[in-house]
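USER: Note each token:
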Amino acid sequence: MALLKNKVIIITGATSGIGAATALEAAREGATVVLAARREEVGAALVARIRDQGGTATFVRTDVTQEKDIENLVARTVREHGRLDGAFNNAGALDALGKLDAISSESYQKVLDLNLRSIFLSMKYQIPELKRQGGSIVNCSSIGGKVGAPGFGVYVTTKFGIIGLTKAAALDHAAEGIRVNAVCPGPVETEIWDPHAEQGKQMLQGFAAATPMKRYARPEELARPVVFLLSDGASYITGTELLVDGGYTCA
């Protein structure tokens, strides 16, 4: 039986990497997926790919740093599909790298808005709809939400914050049938490294070398755990962070 049959699922940051892989996997598992991202042409192409594979998908252009966009995303999802059963709040970026005394306050705030404030805003508008019948939220944190790393202070701040928001929301809404969990990827080969050019490749390879499995993950290796957390198979799991890191945080 399909894990997400008849469920309506929002996925932010849906046009690349873990988000795109999760959209494809969720659709294969029977979900109606609502893809949220800024790149309309890429979003339309992914919708077409999902439909070609027999799935159901729509795209809503969304800038998750803008509250009105998130409000519109949730409202349009419910208007067009009649309900909301879950969400994967995945949008984020790896930016403002370097020692903290070299980071501008503007760069700091930009990363907080994209990585952390967007999670708060997403849950703020998703939870009232999920109260109608219950559901599941998965927030994308990172191994950077569990351990620090030199030069990653701002990114780590946001990812630790996501775990805190996740646990607080889980406690606030568990009795209402809403589960809230976080997934914590280790090194994954996605576009998040691209803005850093050759340095990004070296960082990814360095993290992979420090992983007991001696490799980085493929996006679909994150998609499957996320789909599980969104599904009824995880009906007694809330307030936790699922590490999908090849053993990185074991040491």
Observations:
- The chain has a mean pLDDT of 92.
